[in-house]
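Side project, low priority. Logging it here so it doesn't get lost.
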Amino acid sequence: MSTPVDADTTVFFSVYLSTDVTTDDSGLAEAFEKAILEEDWLVLERYPHREMVLDLDAEFHGPADKMTVEYRRVMAEIIGPLGG
């Protein structure tokens, strides 16, 4: 979920669900997801602030980007009529 804070800031919330995690190892799954997000954050901090690219043809997307591609597609549908 995305929640706009102001014109330049959005807070993203996510839920992690899995059928291959038991109660006993849920802490490991949480730690793994947190480590991945921290790695992503380190990469994103290297880039200057820019608007989200909604044009899906402007960047390369691989299989792991399926959720990001869908998110951008939906955002483009919502923003498209407002921006044009």
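Brief comment: The chain has a mean pLDDT of 79.
Revisit when time allows.
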